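To make this tangible, this section ends with a sequence with its structure tokens:
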Amino acid sequence: MLRRLFLAVESHSGSSRSPGSASSSFGAVQSKRHAASKPGAGLATSMQQHWRVKPSSDVPTPGWGLALPIIPSSTFKMMDAAHGARLHAKDRSPEADEDGYVYGRWGNPTTHAVGRMLSTAEGIDIEAEGSCTYVFSSGMAAITTTMLTLLTSGSHVVAQRCVYGGTHEVLSGILPALGVEVTWVDGSSIEQWSAAVRPNTRLLYAETPANPSMRLTDLEALGALCLQVNLSRPAPERLAVAVDGTFGTPFHQQALSYPGVDISIHSCTKYLGGHSDVVAGCVTTRDEGLLKRLGHFQKLLGNSLGPWEAYLLGRGMKSFVPRMRTHSSNAQQIAEFLEAHPNVTAVHYPGLKSHPDHELAKKMLRNGFSGMISFELPSYAKAAQVCERVKCIHLAVSLGATESLIQHPASMTHAMVPEEERAAAGIPGGLVRLSVGTEEASDLIADLNQSLQ
């Protein structure tokens, strides 16, 4: 019975990884695994078709539960010594094959099923390609594992200045201590990205839309830069492009649909989970060699997601598409209100015509412009005051939940970034970040209006 349950969970979104579907390494000629349709095309339909439990053929459909099963086992029984030997000889993969599982830190059927859901959201054809996603214990676990997988002492990474505060700490502190060189650039300037590339550069790290400036990085141009550089490099020296798309979410932006973009990262704590009740992250790539390396690092670092958290993430993802429609619609209305308010000095939202990347946003972001807004007030004190005066909006960090959250980056999420670096990244002391929830837009506007008086 337990074996049947494993099979049911493993087939949650389709068949297992098909053999022979490996892609070439970073930036090389694109294989069928990297072939992609128009960014965002048919996304909502695709998600809703695949995000459901689909039992395998040996489990009767009538009476089978619709909820994702939770398998909390830390270890898994082996049929015989030969079976155990096969399991221990395998490379890590985002999902198990017919031999099943060996140990919870190496993989779990509940977590793997959620990985398949995330792969679907990222535009992966799981029927043809299998799962391409590892699920982590947090967004930062996903980010740091990706960097540690790609970077070694003596290598170089180019990163945009405006990134999440925790990411900035890794790039400015941990990586240099390990002998990795870091160059900061304006993420919206492809010229700066290009000029920063060196012979030892191994990673271009982007975050788009950026937290909290809401500036965009042109992923088509960045991917093209990576492909161009890699034309003259042997495989071990090739560049990779990694994109943290947490603010954009797969509903608005599928990073892997851009040739040359190798890795998509999300903090699943945010919109994908969507209910402020789970901490998780994910990394998706079509590169078979990188998948094995990421899996090896995840296994040794011990930062994979547990089955209970995976269940919560999977449950949250069932409502992801309608939630994102509401987040985006509400945010557009609120951004327009804030832009017209006399006490607000600037509003940063890609859906506004005044946004410097609005035309790029219309090309890159589908189905709206996300639920994240940042806006500026005349001073640090005024920004803090507005955050304290809201009544139905919650003063809290994190984002992407059904409830609206407001916070002050200079004193909270980006307090660890030196003031001069914050200024260079477009994060002044008067900046406020607003994660627009799914409440009534009119209630949120009324709350902001009274707080701005």
In short: The CA atoms of residues 166 and 204 lie 17 Å apart.
